[in-house]
Amino acid sequence: KRVRQSRSISHLARVHCRAMLPNKTRGEFTRNQRKDSEGQSEFPDLEFEYSDTDKWAAELSELYSYTEGPEFALNRKCFEEEFRVHVSDKKWTELDEAQHRAHAMRLLDSLEVTAREKRLKVARAILYMAQGTFAECSSEVEVQHWMRYNIFLLLDVGTFSALVELLNMEIDNSAACSSAVRKPAISLADSTDLRVLLNIMYMMVETIQQDDPADKPEWITIKETFRTELGSPLFNNEPISVMLFGMVTKFCSGHAPHFPMKKVLLLLWKSILFTLGGFERLQSIKVRKREELGLPPLPEDSIRVIRSMRAASPPASASDLIEQQQKRARREHKALIKQDNLDAFNEKDPYKADDSREDEDDNDDNDNSIEAETFPLERDEVMPPPIPHPPSERVSFPKGLPWAPKVREKDIENFLESSRSKFIGYTLGSDTDTVVGLPRPIHESIKTLKQHKYVSIAELQIIKEEEFQKTPLSGGEEEVETCATELLYQGILPSLPQYMIALLKILLAAAPTSKAKTDSINILADVLPEEMPTTVLQSMKLGVDVNRHKEIIVKAISAILLLLLKHFKLNHIYQFEYMAQHLVFANCIPLILKFFNQNIMSYITAKNSISVLDFPYCVVHELPELTAESLEAGDNNQFCWRNLFSCINLLRILNKLTKWKHSRTMMLVVFKSAPILKRALKVKQAMMQLYVLKLLKVQTKYLGRQWRKSNMKTMSAIYQKVRHRLNDDWAYGNDLDARPWDFQAEECALRANIERFNSRRYDKSHSNPDFLPVDNCLQSVLGQRVDLPEDFQMNYDLWLEREVFSKPISWEELLQ
C-alpha cells in the first residue's frame, strides 16, 4: 500500500504533465531532454571538471527537497520566539561574539528537555542558525558568511555531540518505527524530528570541510579536531559513519520505512569524505606510502592527466550520418544531383555491409533497444564536412600518448617463459634475470619491459600477508597504522555484506531504468507531502522533485562506494577485495550495466531542478510565480553536474571491480555490456570516455574478430587514451587468458585469502590454539579453576558412571 500511494503520486504527476504537454511520448516525464533522433554532431563537448563535490551552494541546496520549502519560515519563527525572550531590541547580526555564544549555550541546554515538542522547536531554532539566520541577510554571499560563523560557534559549544545523542534516541524510537510500519503511506510528517537533526548535522559537516583562506587560526584547529573526532569511535564507541550505515540497513530491512534516506546517505558521504579525504588526499597518501615502501615514484599524476585530456568524437550511428548527409545536400546545392552519382552511391553503399551485421549484433544484445553504430568508409559522399575553426581556437596536443606504459612482474615472467620454451626448450620458473641462449632482440625486449616495470602497493601487501600466514610465530607483530580508514573498516567489518546489499538495493530503487515493483523499497518517504497534489502545477513540481530526489540518491551512493573502494585499496588490498567481492555477490556489475542501459545523453542533460527554489536563493529573494512554462523550460545548464558525476563514479566502480579479475571480465562479456558501453561514448567528456574505453579494452579480445572489425574507431580511441600494458594482447583473441573461466573457483580462492587476513588481523578471540603458549607446570594446571555448567553438576554421577567406571582402563599402558 505504501508503495502504491507513492506510485500513484508519480503517476498523477505524469498524467497532469501529459495534459499540459500533449506532444510528449506516453509514459515519460522527461522535460526538455534531447530527442534520440538528434544527430550525434549536435552534442557539444561538455565543459565539466570532475571533483570530490559540486560547488558549495549546489551541495547545500540538494539537501532540501522542494516539498520542504515551507519549513524555512517555520525554523525562523522558532528561532525568533526563543531569541526575543532574551534579546528584544537587537538583531542576531548586531550582537557581539560573547552574546552569540551565550545564546548558543542557552539553546544547547534547552535541547535536553524531555518534552518532544519543545525539543523540536529548539532544534529548529538551531537549524535556523546553521542556515545562516537568512532573514537578516540580503544576499546569498551574506547567508553563506553567517552560516560559516554560526556553525563554527555551534560546534565550539558542543552541539554536534548533543545532536548525535538525539539522533540515537530517534533511531531507537520503537514507537515511531512501529507507527511508520503500520501506515499505508509515509510522508514528510513522519520523519520531521529526524530530518531536522540530519539537516543540522549535514550543514555542519559540509560547511566545516570547506576550505576558506579567511578562516581564523582557532577555526582551523576546531576543524582538525572535528575531523579526528568524526572518524574516531567516540560516538557510541563507533565512528559516526558506522551509525549511519546502521540506519541504512534498518531502513532496507523494513523496520524503519520513515527514515529520510536521502539525507542519511548525503551525511554518510560527506562524513566519509571529510574524515578519510577526497581524491587529492588519496593521491598524496599514495605518494607517501610508495616512498615509505621504497618504491619508485608514480610515473605521472593521474588526476592532472585526466583533466588535460580532450573528449574524442564518438562513433556516429548510421542514422546520424544519413541525416547529416541529407542536411548537407540541401544546404550545399538545391539543384538536382547527378543521377550517376546517386547510382554509384547505391551500388557501393558503405552502410549495407557493416550495418546489417551491427544491427544483428545489437538486436541480439539488447532486445532492439540499442541503436546500431557503424563507421563510414573514408568517402566524401558519406563523411560530414569538416567544421572550420578560427586559428585562435586551435589546441596544441602534447606529442606521444598521455600515459606512461606499465608492466607487471608477472608479464615479464610470462614473456621469458614463452621465449625460453620457444628458443631453448626449457623453463626456469620465476627467474627474470637469466637470459643465456636467448637472441639479442629478446634481450632488448626484456630491458624495455624492465624499464617500465611497475610494482603496486597492493602487490607488496599481498607478499607481506603471505609471509605472515607462512610464519605466524617468527613473523612478529604487524604494525597497523590507526588511521581513519582503518577505524572505519574495523567498525563496518562485522556487517559489511549487509551494508553493501542495502546500498545496492537503494541504488536499484533510485535508478531511472528501474520499474516500480511491489516488493521494492520506498525511497520517497522524505519527499512526498502529506496531501496529494491537486493542480497540474503542483504535480509537475512534485514530479521534478521526485526525479531530482532519485538523482541525488544515486550521486551519494556512487560517491560513497567509490570513496570506500579507493581508501580501502590504499589501506590494505584485502580490505578492498572484501568489499569488492561482496558488491559482486550482490549483483553490482549487472546493476551498473542496467543503469547505463538507457538514453544516457538524456540522463546527463536532464533538467530536474527549479533553481529559484534552491537554498539559499529561495530564502533571500522574492520568489517569482511558478508556471507550467517556467517549470518546462528548466535551467540553462548544458548538462546536469550531479548526473554526469554519478555516471563517472559508477564507471569507475565497475573498473575497480573487474580490473585483473578474469571471471568478472567475463561477466561483462556474458551480460553483453559492449553495446551499452559503446552508447555511453556519445557523452563528449574525456574522463567518462576514458573509463568506458577501459571497460571495453579488457573485454575486446573476447568479443570476436567481427566486432573488432566493425569498431575500428573505438579501437583507435582505446589506443590513444588508455594506458598501454606492454605485452598485453588486448586487441587480439590469442592471449593466454582466453581460457575457460571458472567464476566460483576464482572467487573462492580470493575469499579464502580475505578470510585468512580478516581472521589473523581482527579476530583475536579465535586465534589458532596450536600457536598459544602452553602451561607445562602440573600444579598450576591442576590448580586452575574450571567453571562447570549447571547441567553437568546435576548429572555428575551419571557422567562418572558412563565415562569413568563403565570404561575399562589399561593401567599398564597409562603408566608407561
From TrEMBL:
Acidic residues: bias regions: 356-370
Bias kind Basic and acidic residues: ranges: 25-38, 334-355
Coiled coil: none
Predominant localisation class: cytoplasm
A single cellular component GO annotation: cytosol
Pfam families: DUF3402, N1221
Source organism of this protein record: Astatotilapia calliptera
Domain Far11/STRP N-terminal: 43-341
UniProt cross-references to InterPro entries, sorted A to Z: Far11/STRP (IPR040185), Far11/STRP_C (IPR021819), Far11/STRP_N (IPR012486)
Gene Ontology biological process terms from the UniProt entry: cytoskeleton organization
Role: Plays a role in the regulation of cell morphology and cytoskeletal organization. Required in the cortical actin filament dynamics and cell shape. Part of the striatin-interacting phosphatase and kinase (STRIPAK) complexes. STRIPAK complexes have critical roles in protein (de)phosphorylation and are regulators of multiple signaling pathways including Hippo, MAPK, nuclear receptor and cytoskeleton remodeling. Different types of STRIPAK complexes are involved in a variety of biological processes such as cell growth, differentiation, apoptosis, metabolism and immune regulation.
Stretches for region Disordered: 23-44, 314-397
Subcellular location: Cytoplasm
Keywords: Cytoplasm, Phosphoprotein
Official protein name in the record: Striatin interacting protein 1
Biological classification of the source: Eukaryota, Metazoa, Chordata, Craniata, Vertebrata
Family: Belongs to the STRIP family.
Domain Far11/STRP C-terminal, first and last residues per copy: 439-796
